[in-house]
Design brief:
Helix 4 packs antiparallel against helix 5, helix 5 runs antiparallel to helix 6 and helix 5 packs parallel to helix 7. The protein has 284 residues and is an alpha+beta fold. The mean pLDDT is 92. It is elongated. Strand 4 and strand 5 form a beta hairpin. The strands form 2 sheets. The chain has a 6-stranded antiparallel sheet with strand order 1-2-3-6-7-8, with no helix packed on it.
Length: 284
């Protein structure tokens, strides 16, 4: 008897599914993955549209908790610890909520990321919350969007934009600490073979950060010896040598790179022009 009842319930469920009319969502779920510094950040949110309505202060009331999108609560995932608006946020997945106001918003990262909208939201589960001023745009943003812009080595701005409102949330990643840890592990404390690319990457980092340039020159030299056919290694070594006022090393390297670039069977990758300009700078 129980088996018959179970089969009957299953049949009713299947009939219910068959009778449903499948329609596209008017607020589709958007999933984006973005590299910010050395962190990978995933955003998942429902994307509603204005459709001629007044949004903030009307459809989305001021001073009330909002899911920051449509349907399920917005999910924010970071694979590394980051700093958001001056506050540390550990690696993990969070529900991203907000409290819109006319001139500023409260942005909230909450432990609960599996809620439907703001139903069940509890302030006690907040990890961080902070206020961000509103930027007003003359251009109407029809569709709600979240994305990143203004990228630097150590971060970017997370943008929340809809209607005529733009919220810019600074996101920073301590890339310097992560890179230094890699250099210590892969060069300083490495007991085995060190690859040319590893030396080159470390040298490039020190060069770009203007940090211990003499050490950077040593690493460029080691990279060049291990992979002499990589003429771009020679170029950056020469460029740095000029910065250190070691013009003989700079000129010899620039000439060597120029010759290799001209003889390259694939492409010069722009290094013919770069070397020509570098040689002019050396001779001045």
């Amino acid at each position: 008897m129980k088996t018959k009842i179970s089969l009957f319930i299953t049949l009713l469920s299947c009939m219910s599914l068959i009778s449903q009319i499948i329609q596209p969502s008017l607020s589709p779920t958007i999933t984006t993955k973005q590299k910010v510094g050395l962190a990978t950040i995933d955003l998942q949110y429902g994307q509603p549209s204005v459709k001629g309505r007044t949004i903030f202060g009307s459809l989305i009331p001021y001073n009330r908790i909002w899911r920051t999108g449509a349907n399920a609560s917005t999910k924010f995932t970071t694979d590394k610890e980051i700093n958001v608006a001056g506050l540390n946020l550990p690696a993990g997945t969070y529900g991203l909520y907000s409290i819109p106001e006319e001139k500023e918003w409260t942005i909230i990262f909450n432990k609960k990321s599996n809620l439907w909208g703001s139903a069940g939201y509890n302030k006690e589960n907040d990890i961080i919350r902070f206020k961000i001023p509103v930027t007003t745009s003359k251009e109407l943003r029809e569709t709600f969007s979240m994305y990143f812009e203004n990228f630097t080595i150590n971060g970017a701005s997370m943008i929340i934009a809809w209607e005529n409102t733009i919220i810019k949330v600074p996101v920073l990643v301590n890339s310097d600490r992560i890179i230094e840890e890699q250099i210590t592990s892969k060069i300083t404390n490495e007991k085995g073979e060190i690859k040319a690319q590893t030396y080159f990457d470390a040298a490039q980092y020190y060069y770009q950060k203007n940090k211990d340039l003499k050490q950077a020159l040593i690493w460029f030299t080691k990279a060049e010896k291990l992979r002499p056919q990589a003429f771009w290694y020679t170029y950056y070594k020469s460029e740095l040598a000029l910065k250190l006022n070691q013009k003989d090393i700079a000129k010899t390297g620039a000439q060597k790179c120029l010759k290799a670039a001209k003889n390259s069977k694939s492409s010069d990758y722009g290094y013919i022009a770069k070397c020509s300009l570098l040689l002019k700078a050396i001779d001045n």
